[in-house]
Amino acid sequence: MEERERANEEEGVVWNRETVPRVLEIVSTRLPQRDLISLLLVSPWIRRTLTSHPSLWLVLDFREMNNAGNQLVSTLSQLRYKHVKQISLEFAQDIEDKHFDIIKSKCSDSLQNLESLNLNGCQKISDRGVEAITSICPNLKVFSIYWNVRVTDTGIEHLVKNCKNIVDLNLSGCKNISDKSLQLIADNYQHLKCLNLTRCIKLTDGGLCKIFVKCSSLHSLNLYAVSRCVRVTDEGVIPLAEGCTSLEFLSLFGIVGVTDKCLEALSKFCSNTITTLDVNGCIGIKSSGGGGNKGGPARFGQMGVQPMGSMVARFQAYEAGEILGRQMSFDAWKHVVTCM
User: Residue 266 class from Cβ within 10 Å (0-12 exposed, 13-18 middle, 19+ buried)?
Assistant: First the structure.
């Protein structure tokens, strides 16, 4: 009996020492960080195995958490998080400028390798918080601060001063930034790949032109509902087509000041790369109907793109509560995807 118990114990030790690490090595790459943290409580063997994998401590996910500010400060104070690369505070609660001030003064070494910072929905963060956190993130590449009305051009000025390597920037819903921010972005981020300016309602043609002239490497640009008035027009969008010839994704949703001319420019300069184009709500685009439409945009097929049969893209505009339906022939365009 004792021998059997001893054999079972030895088998358990072998299982924990050899099998568990191999299993966790596979599983840990597929589980969300929160689930991995929960596994730490299962057994000492699992905890020991997981804590020996540095990759576990490269990501901090505080999405939608309560008391996120204090938790972030406490976590970054731990040695194991000295090389964190990603932090998400998306819609986290209780995160304020003061927490970033504390991190700057006490935990600045922990963020020297940070590459991605998500502050989406953190509405208590202002220009002061942006200055504090970006000043200790010299290697930041991805910065997202969607739906923040407290950040202004001053915050963007801090960002471009402190973080020189940004390639993906999301300012969606930052309604208090102006063309000055676009000038700063254009002057400092000429290798920018992705830019989201959704609902940045103070922008004009002049600011957008600065981006299009200098940020020629843009692959993705979202101008969804940038302007419900006519401050953004063909004069701002046509330079985009001429300057950003690597563009793959473009949303002009709700920009009422653009017309068929911008589509002609896009078809002329971007037909080899663009795969997604959204012009829903662009009531200034009047072209309709099939191949006999002489006033419509130049076809992408003229640029050597293979036709895709009878594909038709539907454009819907919503103005004054009225739904306007119209069709446009895109049988020779590469791909057009509209967001219904």
Answer: buried
Which residue(s) pair with 312 in the sheet?
Answer: 329
d(CA 147, CA 131): 18
Q: Is residue 296 a contact partner of residue 287, using CB atoms and an 8 Å limit?
A: yes
The model carries a pTM of: 0.77
Q: Please give the pLDDT value at position 314.
A: 30
262-266 long-range contacts, Cβ below 8 Å, gap at least 24? 262/234, 262/237, 262/238, 263/287, 263/296, 263/297, 264/297, 264/298, 265/234, 265/237, 265/238, 265/241, 266/241, 266/297
Structure token pair of residue 100: 């970033």
Q: Which amino acid makes up residue 40?
A: L
- Residue 251's pLDDT is 92
pLDDT at res. 39: 72
Instruction: Report DSSP letters for 286-307, one per residue.
Output: ---BSTT-TTSPPPGGGGTPPP
Show the low-confidence residues of the chain (pLDDT under 50): 229, 288-340
Q: Where do we find the tokens 């504090």?
A: 132
pLDDT of residue 315: 29
d(CA 199, CA 74): 35
Residues facing residue 116 across a β-bridge: 86, 142
Tokens of 250: 């473009």
Sheet with 249-251, side-by-side order of all strands: 59-61, 86-88, 116-118, 142-144, 168-170, 194-196, 220-222, 249-251, 276-278
Q: What is the pLDDT of residue 12?
A: 60
